[in-house]
Design goal:
InterPro entries: DjlA_DnaK_co-chaperone (IPR050817), DjlA_N (IPR007791), DnaJ_domain (IPR001623), J_dom_sf (IPR036869), TerB-like (IPR029024). The chain is mostly helical. It has helices at about 1-10, 20-30, 30-40, 45-50, 75-90, 95-110, 110-125, 130-140, 145-160, 165-180, 185-190, 200-205, 215-225, 240-260. Helix 9 (about 145-160) packs antiparallel against helix 10 (about 165-180).
């Protein structure tokens, strides 16, 4: 268990505090007590435990609004696995294909050893009742916009892992998007990457079919900039692949409209 503590403690930043820290602390169980005594007094555990042990020593993530650019790979990782458990349970069951997808993505991003630790934590978190609104508020407050868009893309990937995104899963992701401060345009853009319809290319570029060719070109430049992998460079190389997937979808949508309209 100490190896698990070393792994998670070394990769977290602002997610040490607030509801995310409490969820991770509860998942790690007694490790939280050891962590509290050896890391500046930060307490990982449920809210009652936090309030009765060293209340003044616990960092307040609400005072760190200027630290968005400092979101670490670990912050993104634990935010992702917490939200993933919510989406997977949205339709009332945990489909093995979705669980396999999460594990495979962890392996591709982090390597087998770290992925095994992450997935073990994921399973423990999935046993909890997640205070979704509070978790999302912490993420919205502390995580930059590009990284939050990356979270949304990953959640749709998970929901689609069993072949389709159910209404319950889509509704849950939509709720998460609202709590994360994701605009309807951005939400529909990412959502369109996972569906087949005649106007998906327009939705991905956040325009309508009435857009002129010049407006399409302008929208493409805007979306290419928004979804460029460099936007999540601070999360580390392990998270750039997902960003590259979004970027390729924008390019594909633009090329489709170029072909359809002949410009």
């Amino acid at each position: 268990m100490m190896s698990g503590l070393k792994w998670i403690g070394a990769t977290l930043g602002w997610s040490f505090g607030g509801p995310i820290g409490a969820i991770i602390g509860l998942a790690l169980g007694s490790i939280g007590d050891a962590f509290a005594s050896g890391n500046g007094g930060f307490l990982l555990g449920d809210s009652d435990t936090q309030q009765t042990r060293g209340r003044q020593r616990r960092p307040n993530y609400r005072t760190q609004q200027q630290r968005r650019a400092q979101t670490t790979s670990g912050d993104f990782e634990v935010s992702l696995l917490i939200l993933a458990t919510v989406v997977i349970k949205a339709d009332g069951k945990q489909d093995q294909r979705e669980l396999d997808y999460v594990r495979s993505q962890f392996v591709s991003m982090y390597g087998k050893d770290r992925a095994n630790k992450a997935f073990s934590l994921f399973k423990k978190v999935s046993q909890q009742t997640i205070p979704l609104r509070q978790v999302c508020m912490q993420i919205q407050q502390m995580m930059d916009h590009a990284s939050r868009l990356q979270l949304m893309h990953f959640l749709f990937n998970i929901a689609k892992a069993d072949g389709m995104v159910t209404e319950d899963e889509e509704r849950q992701i939509y709720t998460i998007a609202g709590y994360l401060g994701i605009s309807s345009g951005d939400y529909n853009s990412i959502k369109a990457m996972f569906y087949n319809s005649s106007n998906n290319a327009y939705k991905i570029l956040e325009i309508t079919k009435s857009a002129t060719n010049d407006e399409i070109k302008k929208a493409y430049r805007k979306m290419a900039k928004k979804y460029h992998p460099d936007k999540v460079e601070h999360l580390g190389e392990e998270h750039k692949k997902g960003a590259e997937d979004k970027f390729k979808q924008v390019q594909k949508a633009y090329e489709q409209l170029q072909k359809e309209r002949g410009f």
